[in-house]
Fold each of these.
Amino acid sequence: AVVKDWLATMVQWLGLGSCVPEQRVPPAQTFLTGGAANLWRAKSAALQVQGVDIQDWDVFARTLEQAFGHQDPEQNARDKLDVLKQTGSVEDYADKFQSLLAEIVAMPPSEGDLLQKFRNGLKADIQMAASIDPVTGTRWMNLQKFISLACATDASRAQTTKGKQASDKSEQGKSSCSMASYKDKLKGKRPHESSQSQPAKKSKTSQNKQKSEQKAKDWEHNFACFLCHKPGHRAKECPDKPKNSRVDFAKAK
């Protein structure tokens, strides 16, 4: 009915512009969009190969009516129901399922078929958790009760997952705080500990100088002057050293 109404409106509109039947198709096809435009593009190419005049209005109208004019709304709902799958929550899936079911009036599916279709569309984990009636311990016999339990099961699992994620984030936060506190304590202790527990290191040059001075003192204390044989000084500092003890070997020759 929609396609026929559109075609009738288009003929009337084109007639107002004094458009003859042989020239209706080119302007009319510019108003096609989406799937209708794609279909006419493909069909017209195939018809042209077969030698059919694609500028003929009757060919144009018949092609659109065959593709879109004889659709059965209930059959469309049945087809969509057969392939419907849960992609989000069970509640969203159940709403879509029941909306499509409401469109099937003439020959609605049996309760058993609906139970099977609804179960098949659920995610695998929900199928396993909610496919048995907990009261009877057998397969479900009532669609609405099945839908209610499946929704409740999904909501409970979602809440549990949300709580676990919140707990994990809390634990991570505590761990981060503990680590930061530990690092802060280390930073606070290092300057204090180093100033008390570790004596300042003397330079190597200073240490060597002290060793040399100590060796000299030890030598002076332990060794006697070879002139007077008294300890505490070297020969050049001996008070008993004879005067003019230096010899000029050049003059001596």
Amino acid sequence: AATACAPANVIGGSVTGSTRVSPGGLPTFRDPASMRSPEQQPESVQQPVQKPAEVPRALRALRALRVVKQAPVEQTQEGPRPPLEAHASFDGLGVGFAGAPSPQPLRNPSDNALAVGPHHVFQIVNSRYAVFSKKGARYDTTGSVLLGSAATNTIFQGLGGQCEARNNGDAVVKYDQLADRWLVVMPIFRRPANDSTGPFSICYAVSVGPDPLGPYYKYEFLRPLFPDYPRLAVWPDGYYVGTSTGDDVIEKHACVVDRARMLQGLSATEQCVIVKDVNFLNPADIDGWGLPPAGAPNLIFATGGTQLKKIFNDDGIYYWSFHVDWDDPSKTKLTGPTKIAVAPYHYLCDGQLTSCVSQPDTTRSLDAQGDKLMNRVVYRRMGNVESIVALHSVNSSRQRGGVRWYEFRLDRARKPQLYQQGTYAPDGFYRWMGSIGIDADGNIAMGYSFGGNPKYPGQRFAARLASDPPGTLGYRESILAEGEATQRNTLRWEDYTALAMDPSDDCTFWYVGDYIKKGAASYSTRIGAFRVPTCVGKGQR
């Protein structure tokens, strides 16, 4: 692997060689590159991608304002329909977890990740994971603990190296409904100082079959740059991941690994393009079974502005087209950014690692991560319509926080065009740190954190029918978890929540986020499931 990267480099993956079987019988991979001397390390492959232009600057003097007028797209009242009911709701990892307790206090922030398959619910909180039952053909109940809590790096037992040895957190999970497999991605934030194979790694575990309890094919790819805040997406030609060099550097990484080979447990490679002067990159993640045209590039999205340059406003969402060539990496191309004009917005709390969400009984406010599109950006094909939905946290006209959401549709040239947008801010409280999805019928739902003095922070969700007026959520807000206390130990709140689609019906949304129980010293997480009752869906089984 390359020891240093410049913009537009493609970094060769570090996993090569043949399968070996651990004593426990699990297929595993070991990086033979780690046994080479520095002189023997494979060279990086230069690829002819132009360095992207700097993201356009903020709109004139609006950079100095904390509130942007958003009346044309801001929904200031709840929708007319009754709220949707959660047909499943249970505590996940954290205070109130019904499984084996963690031997150490859970790390902050929670970094919630969630995936749902035909029979299982898989949750990761920072550095630990658990697997729960899902009611259906295999289990009689939802929410029974089948595994956990367990340290996330235990998934990589038998691989050796840093993926097995370290548990730095920030792991994410995804159910690949196209292959009926599970995927866990875990970054390694530091390696031994005397290790000549590279300073960082990123680890992949792909289940051998449909069971999330294992076994897994396991991979470690060396990284020369810090792989923070991974954003994971399934695409036909690869597993795409966006990562960041760090909070004090305006530099991101668009990466992809060879999905076809990893599903077979074969040696695989990773290719990355380094992108400077952009916000966090979110690759489009497929929900449902409608595929993009063969060979279509993945689309990657980001907000505008730059927190480190104190540019907190913008009037665009930006995208890149990422085409990967596994036979000839020199032909891999990342093209962009291209601006999609949207209503002006201002980052909630001026971005990340700040605080403005007030709480009762304390002067400590919570972080909003307002500078970035949140997990996930979702792609869905419905017949000839290709939709992409995304959201982020913005200031509202009431000087609180709202959830700005978008639906983009691809034109005949497969370029995203704004189809509708809205800012959900129906009252004077904060809504932030959301996650969005779109079901098989085109109905859109989102879960998000809710709070602001005098309300304790908790979790809610809302939805719209595909036929609702553009930019509005027609269903009234539902409460998933009512906050019972203030978070006092840190300003960090979650960093992200997660909404996943149920493959069994392609209609049910599963959502997870944090809340604080009365008298608790740390967070709880609540996992809930809900659906729009009119959704027909075309589920897997």
Amino acid sequence: NLCEITLESFADQTKNPRISFLVNKLHVSFVALLTHLSQITSNISRLAIKSLFFINNRVVECPELRKALELVYSQVLPQCVGKFGPNRSQSSKADTNIFAYFSLQIPANLLDVNVHPTKEQVLFTNSKQITEGIIDACKEALLAESDVQCFSFNACSASTSSVPKTKLNTSGEILTSLQSLTNRKVLPQFKVRTDYKSRTLEAFFDVPEPFKAVISSGESTNSEVCIVPAENEKKRDKSPDLAFDSDPADIVSPPRKRTLINKELQQWTKEKYGKASLKNTDELGMPQKRTELEDKFRMLVLDLEKDASPKLRNVLRECKYVGLTTHKRRYMLVQRGLSLLNLDLDQMLEEMFHQLLLRNFGNLGEYRLNKPIALDAILKKLGSREEEERRRIHDQIIAKQILLFDYFTFRIQKHKDGLFYLHGFPMLLDKYLPDLCQMPTLMYRLGEIIGETSDESRLLSALIRLLSQFYSNKLTPMSREEDKCYRWSLEHVILPAFRSVYFPSKSIEETKAITTLTTLPVLYKSFERC
């Protein structure tokens, strides 16, 4: 039969004692031949598995089964070294290679051979359950033939005061080494006293709502406006291009879905959009999606993720908020293990918001002004500009209001008085508000970029860079309450975003935007007596 022919073909591999068994499970029957544990030397690190897999009498590759087999030997071998070491054969017959032969019979309707052009690989239904069943049978057969018992242990923390003194005959050495590790005292200067996964009660309370901000330039006519997220709307589904960590402490609230400006927009059609009269209407239509633009920004996101630094990403995932360093709020202190790190918020926030704008392109949330502000009044806050220049900027923004709303949720509407009012602006992160005192400058730069760029692709790229700079800058002095809200957003909004959605580029590492100020062992030398 096939098994005997295989043994004859691999005579040099099968001349030593082997373990064979037959199992039927999940409508699958398989025969296996495995190297006996007594024939393996103690040099476990250099072991190599030579495997031969037959599925329905055809030689195939099965990486999943091979990896699982390596895991079984790595779990079983350390327990057998002590048992077979003194009595191990020292002849040349002992080898450091493991030979494994598997012959599986699977119903044809559960098998898919159209995976590889040469049919070297196959897929089959319930592959995970079948692999687990095969591996369990292999592990049981190896331990039974070798007369070795297998025990599992839970990881013990460094603070464990005692370890059970009961020792089993077959794993006494393991228990002895485990006890010596857990009884080892951790020095104070090397003890980590923080947990980046822990959360405080403040994280469960929102920033005082509604957010209040003043769009001003120091004039006495400035009025305070309330800014609130769009109400009575269901939350938008997460962007498919945005990968979140599984840690619930790091989840960032997704943007809320925005609504159309008026009910008439819900009934617009392609026919209506194609009419020339749309250019003169006051309604704000929705342009057709451009596949090439979406593909371009999707490729940019992939390039950003490829250029990301895995080292810095792992560092940010384990950081705990400490505070701010300067009165300008440019640097943030965080703790990672025994190290105190300094983060340059200017560089990191700008890069993170740039990535969010690319990932959520055309799918952003929206902040609403409960009291709309005239676009002309916002531009007048820049008192040094001439009237003709402000009017030119105003007209250029109005000419692109459809694009601004569709891709960036800048909601600009014409009122009965003939003026255009700003009703809303983008929300990149829930509960994070930019410096609205810089809104006049933003609108002016917005109009300038629109006037200078005719190509739509370049225009969108320039607007994304402009918005990322606007959301990352916090230049206006804050009151005590505003500063408190800003610190709250850093700890409970920005830092979780750094952990989950931010891919720090290698340029961040080169510019040393993340630096180590000191470590606990260094500080302990100075403050040990305190």
Amino acid sequence: KDLVVWNLMGMLRWGEVEVAGEEEHEMVYKLKEV
């Protein structure tokens, strides 16, 4: 489960950058964040 947490942390970091460019990514990252 530790790897999953690290992956989420990394995706959220990159997600913020991608979300700024595409709104579709925001939906995906929000679903993963929940």
